[in-house]
Design brief:
The structure is a homodimer of 402-residue chains.
Chain A lengths: L4 E3 L8 E6 L11 E6 L4 E6 L7 H11 L5 E5 L11 H16 L6 E5 L9 H13 L6 H7 L8 E9 L2 E10 L12 E6 L5 H14 L15 E6 L11 H23 L7 E9 L2 H12 L2 H8 L5 H9 L12 E4 L2 E5 L2 E2 L5 H8 L3 E7 L5 E8 L3 H9 L3
Parallel strand pairs in A: 5-6, 9-10, 11-15
Antiparallel strand pairs in A: 1-7, 2-3, 3-5, 4-10, 7-8, 8-9, 11-16, 12-13, 12-15, 13-14
Helix pairs in contact in A: 1-2, 2-3, 5-6
């Protein structure tokens, strides 16, 4: 694959306009409402949370996407419209109707997304009142403002663009995401919105999205808590080159989409609530990919591993203890090899002979840390991204509602 | 069942003597070595961690117990003798031999237990040097000192005695335990030592112990991390009344043993690292006991639920989100009812009509908090104990080795 052009400033996608405004949904004076307009004829596919307590907008978004002529994505922060009982769905629908009325489309062409506090009703009247303003703000270069507007406890905007050549011409994929806490997507993700000017069939789009999500958002955990509102949507405007469902162009596109999703997923882990470092946990040579993922997540979600990482303390025994409880019945603990970065830390059931505590601590003090566990029992690998667990995480989550 | 006499000061058990000394294993000047002597003819049974990285003393303890003539339990803190590679087992055996030499018994009659830091070798010579002292300290009223000597990051001694009548005469059960972090026993427990003067057959003793552990230590989680050294041992000296494997006396004994184990398990959760309150999560009306336990543990281990509890913040949406990701495929979220203490907080998928935020916050500000989830889908219940997640937890675990 020839090099893509990678940009951390999100680039416009032909056929997409984005607007963001302050609607005063929960706090005055901060952007909290975003509208993404897709050109007529765009396709969109999405994956949603598997949490049984799905928020009302998740149900509506899934239903509206099945009508298959998406024109607008409406995203609010402040309140998640989850755990809102019987009023949840009518409230979400009323927001869609407000967009439809302003933009001359059917309500089913509006896909709603909400994020924020669970259990409080959505102030529909404030959302509806802001729709004319957010429509007036629609522009091709609105992505970066949107990346800020959709955030909650995030401290950084999560955005990326890839620009690459297909046989039919140049193609762009731009994505933004939000998420810092309640992050353990289960066959879905936090909120992520990705658009391309490529043209794809519904099935090709869906297949590409699920493949990328499986390697990226589904491999992230900040705290093991799966959100009620997770959603990841991919829109393809078709203004740019058409892509068949297989062949070199599709593979090229898939690789670029994987890269965009992994980039956003890593950005979410790096900006995990209270995080001081991004942690990449790679499990090698497992019997199956499910086993590799299970071990990686057990290590990535261990509070004892995560607090040791916060202190850059090479307390490798905690990693071994986490692997040991990951549910592999016939694990041979003497075969396992543990690395921090490139350094071999433990083997043969104990500390490596070459172990150097100062070097190990220096490895863990980096802003990006790699923990690699080689099980030496098969041919499957998996990588999971997480962050360390700091006192700041507790402060953020003990004070989030106050 | 007529009333038991319950005592928070551990009472002597006929046929048991306990000694504790400072052996300077890791830190000078703190009691860190305990020896429990069982009268000749005592029986003992134990359950051990299912972590695949079992510490060396766990292997040795299991093997020595099978020889079935236990006389001494040797417990050290400071170092766990886990992740110590090939030297782990010879080191644990050398400690047993030191006791055997001093006490004129076979090394197989000494059962070793270690707790503390993983990955560092056990200083065998310091343990061996202290054996004559700890033997000289053996006394019937040594239980309370031992409850302190076996602790690591614990802030409180965990001890209880029950005294009750059986048909053959009065009977005592006394137990001590340690554990504050790396607490999520899996078919086993942290360190707990329980003795009775009753006489039981091996099978009756084993059956009684497993029943009690299933209702107590296996229902506790501080941080979801299963230790490499967990062990719970029950010794029966037979100096007191004999108990048949079934009948009224056995039931009486079982109920008392359940109460002792639940008391110690709750003490461990209440003293969880950094904890400011004990949290009892009860799941009612599940389809199976496994389902009830799974939901209860998912809620009890959710960092978002635990940080909200640290702030006494009635952020009930986080409880619903945790239930929703607990893996019940056909959960009807509209049937679920959530209570804090006696207060109904949520039902019909949203906030209860009678919800009173100030009253809910007051309920959560107590030192002992009850979170009850009524699934209304079956006849099985389970109760799990945990604690809140505070910034102090992070501080303790980021600094534990320094």
């Amino acid at each position: 694959m020839s090099p893509c052009q990678h940009s951390i400033t999100p680039q416009p996608v032909a056929g997409v306009r984005v607007g963001s405004v302050c609607a005063g949904i929960r706090q005055p004076g901060r952007p909290d409402l975003t509208l993404i307009e897709l050109a007529a004829g765009s396709k969109a596919g999405a994956v949603f949370t598997r949490n049984q307590f799905r928020a009302a907008p998740v149900w509506i978004a899934e239903r509206h996407l099945s009508s298959n002529a998406p024109r607008y994505l409406l995203i609010n922060t402040g309140y998640a419209n989850a755990g809102t009982g019987e009023r949840g769905e009518p409230d979400a629908l009323a927001c869609c109707r407000a967009v439809a009325d302003n933009c001359n489309c059917a309500p089913e062409q509006v896909i709603p997304f909400s994020t924020g506090i669970i259990g409080e009703p959505l102030p529909v009247e404030r959302v509806a009142a802001a729709i004319p303003n957010v429509c007036a703000d629609l522009r091709e270069d609105g992505w970066e403002d949107a990346a800020w507007a959709i955030h909650t406890t995030d401290t950084r905007a999560k955005q990326v663009s890839l620009h690459f050549e297909l046989s039919g011409g140049p193609c762009t994929i731009t994505g933004i995401a939000k998420g810092a806490g309640m992050i353990r997507p289960n066959m879905a993700t936090m909120l992520a919105f990705i658009a391309t000017d490529a043209g794809l069939s519904d099935t090709a789009l869906d297949r590409a999205l699920r493949h990328s999500v499986g390697l990226s958002f589904n491999r992230v955990s900040v705290d093991g808590d799966t959100s009620t509102n997770d959603a990841c949507l991919l829109a393809a405007t078709g203004v740019g080159p058409e892509i068949e469902g297989e062949g070199a162009d599709f593979e090229r596109f898939q690789a670029a989409l994987d890269a965009v999703c992994i980039d956003l997923a890593k950005a979410i882990a790096a900006d995990g609530e209270g995080a001081s470092r991004l942690v990449e946990v790679e499990v090698r040579s497992a019997v199956s990919s499910a086993e590799a993922e299970q071990v990686a997540f057990t290590v990535a979600e261990s509070p004892l591993v995560k607090t040791a990482l916060a202190a850059a303390d090479p307390n490798w025994g905690r990693v071994l203890a986490a692997v040991g409880r990951a549910g592999i019945a016939d694990l041979d603990v003497n075969r396992l090899r543990l690395f921090f970065g490139e350094q071999l830390i433990a083997e043969h059931g104990g500390r490596s002979n070459n172990y150097d505590e100062a070097a190990a601590a220096a490895e863990l003090a980096r802003p990006q840390v790699a923990v690699t566990i080689d099980l030496q029992r098969g041919n499957s690998n998996a990588t999971v991204w997480t962050c360390d667990l700091t006192a700041e995480y507790v402060r953020i989550n003990a004070e989030y509602r106050s």
